[in-house]
Amino acid sequence: MEGFNLKNTFFSCITIIVLVLSMLFFYEPAQNLLCSYAIFERFLINTPKVCSLFDTTRLSRYNGVDGGKIYLSILGIVFDVTEGRRFYGPGGSYSGFSGRDASRSFITGLFDEENLTDHVSDMDPSDLIGLDTWLNTYKKKYKEIGKLIGRYYDSSGKETDYNKLVFEKIKSGKMAKEAKNKEMAQYPSCNIEYVQENQKSKVWCTTLSGGIKRNWIGVPRKLQSLDENGKLSFRCACVQLDTLSKAELVHINEYEDCDASATTCYVKIS
Questions:
Q1: Rounded distance, CA 29 to CA 62, Å?
Q2: What pTM was estimated for this model as a whole?
Q3: Sign of the C-alpha dihedral, residues 109, 111, 114, 115?
Q4: Which of 50, 110, 192, 218 is within CB 3.0–4.6 Å of 238 for a Cys-Cys bond?
Q5: Which of 90, 134, 85, 84 is nearest to 109 (CA)?
Q6: pLDDT per residue over 177-197, tens digit each?
Q7: Enclosing H/E stretch for 12
Q8: What is the pLDDT, as a whole number, of residue 32?
Q9: 78-88 pLDDT, tens per residue?
Q10: Tally of CB atoms within 10 A around 81
């Protein structure tokens, strides 16, 4: 009889657990059993742990309507921004971000169908760096609660190839930006002023030209370089000729009708 009662108690407990999980599944449909268990665990022992994987349908529920929680995603990472309700809630200036991943809109500032998307791999590296800055800002300000299944993470929460491509572009963009900053320190930009009388531009160097404070002046030269997006361009730079190697001088050209040692020249800049 005692064994029978234990058996009944065991099956009763299993039945109760199944019923609770079923109720929770109805309350918040889950992607898998682990998600249901995480929600069950939250209610059972009052921990902040929740299912960390969202699909687009589940995420869309957290848009702040009727005073509910507000979540958003950036590059596939989900944040709880409920404390910023006046910005992200219905009618708020950033409500377009709520309940979805609108990573592209963080850069474009547009909230139409074309921009309310998480597709960003076609954007310039400088834009992707800006988006990465947004991501890090949210990590500091809001609680990171999970990942969005789709473009950036698969159904098990692992990074997708698309995710790796975007972050590789961000990494490459940061390296290019760092190289550009070093270049600007070595070759500060000239001061430039267009002179209407002779339809030429006055270019000149000082110890502060280009916003780079230094103890040398340099001379104006036409410098061939790459911008932050990897595109070839020319700009007027102040250079210290006696510090440059032959390899470095290859990318530097004199302006026509400009004395080689002059710190000020009048040139045509296309």
A1: 13
A2: 0.69
A3: positive
A4: 218
A5: 134
A6: 898 889 999 999 999 999 988
A7: helix 2-27
A8: 47
A9: 999 999 999 99
A10: 23
